[in-house]
Amino acid sequence: MPIPSLFCIGLPGPELDDSTRRLLDRGVGGVILFARNVRSPEQVARLCHDLKAYAGRPLLITIDQEGGRVARLREGFTAIPAMRDLGATGDGALGREVGRVLGRELKAVGIDLNFAPVMDVDSNPANPVIGTRSLARDPETVARLGVALAQGMQEVGVAACAKHFPGHGDTDTDSHLALPRLGHGMDRLKAVELLPFRAAIAGGVASIMSAHVVFEALDSGVPGTLSKKVMTDLLAGEMGFGGLRISDCMEMKAIANGQGWCGVVGASVKALQAGVDLVLISHGHDLAHAAMDAAEKALNAGELAHARVADAEARLKVVLECYAVKAQAAPDLSCLNGAAHREVAARISVGNVNKEKDPTVAIGGM
Asked: What CATH number corresponds to the domain at position 151?
């Protein structure tokens, strides 16, 4: 596979356009969908079909469909409450069912990988970006419910992605806007931030997304996404993760504004060098082309090792073979927002009511 296969790109609207066709021609490995790409279930299914049919090869179509406020697919799809509400039930079996609901509906329209579950621990009430997206304030609940969600999705054929490694829950800065930093020591990181990710790895999660956060105890001054100590030495080495390592979007200001790594283009090369296998550039097609050019130049110059690229390609190939479904001209959308799926979502609210009535049961580890 060529260097472009290690990039995942967005597209501007609800239909396949010429600019996206050029990136598919170049060989990109994945596409991410946002609300700007969504009009109806039928249109999403048609778009996924068109993307895969035009590519003529395995193509990973991805999305952020967490539930709550982060759900790109809304009208015509089952409304899943915020993950905080699911975590408050403490019900692992329900978590697995929620994962199956998400997975079935994504697979029905042709989406292969969901950037969920959030495995960040909601340990900082001032966190502007995680909050109710997290399952709980204690790491054990996040680990147990997060693994259940991931396994439910993967049981029905959609790859899960644990995010944001090594943990974005205790930051008070949104990495979309600036670069967060955490000064916790290793004992704290192992007990809180890393615990859910260890559980996700043990539970067989297909992919893990990096955090654009500096962890001083791991690699002072370097965001996790760009750190070999984080993405290779810790995640793949010490923690033994053999799945696909995906960057958070490289256009977020935590990375794009960074002078030490030359913005999106330079950072994309550094991410690959650090151990990221699939680089996410969600918006700018010119940036995607420039980043691919830079990565190809680095490979030819010996600055990006051929062995590193081969490792990334091998990890991507496994996920493509397991989860990237072929284009479907006439998909079955009958499961979308069906009675059985709505019943699963409703059980989240019922579970929370029952917990509130029982003062002997802790809610979300509090």
From this structure: 3.20.20.300
